[in-house]
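Progress against Task 2.4 (sequence-to-structure conversion) is shown through the following example record, which the project officer requested during the mid-term review.
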Amino acid sequence: MANSLPPATILGTEVRDFPSSIMGINYQISIWLPPGYPKPGHRYPVVYLTDAEVLLGHTTTVIMFLNILETVPECLIVGLGHHVSTLDEWAAARDIDYDPPENPEGEPEQKRADDFLQFLKQEMIPFIEDTYSADPQDRCLAGYSTGGMFTLYAMLHEPDLFSRYLIVSGVFDSMLPHFLADEQQLASGRKSLPVRAFFAAGEKEENIVPSLHTFVYTLKRRGYEGLHLETLIVEEEDHFSAFPTAFLKGFKALYKAE
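Structure tokens generated for the chain above:
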């Protein structure tokens, strides 16, 4: 890459440095604002998007076009990213943020999903809702792969923090026992779970599809009040090709009229 050339930008997007005292690093946050923002007196739903370095461009296009079709409302998108310049740097940074401590893979000190969740709750979300015309009653968390694993982790550990969860290719078989234990702990303290959750994976993801079905079956059998669940297995697709369809159909499902 020629360093003298300016980087590409996404129309309607602001980029901010965001230092976190909880995580001890300086994040790069990208906030996409819909056309016409802000409208007087209007509060916008917010999508908090993991892996903004690679997913923000695709997701802003999906949300914008679905809004034109009046399938989803006008939303803000908060892209959660890092100051990285290579894919290797991105992969290392995301694993620290999104890996739960219980994940059997990786180094223990590099698995800080619990801290990252508190960063969102205590630092990021308050900043967004103080700075932008954001609706505090309509937050969505969206993730793919390790970001999807973190999204499910957040739903089980802070279920009231978001009202919509898009979980794509994130129910890894290595984490299923831990997710089932987390769900059992959640069920011991509450009978309601008033959220919308969309689970998806590619048909060829053999280390995810059976676990996804098992976990979703467990949620359905539990019978939480207020829980809206939908699933999608994307035919003929694998871990690296399922997410475009999953995000498109997932956002449509999460925001469809109740």
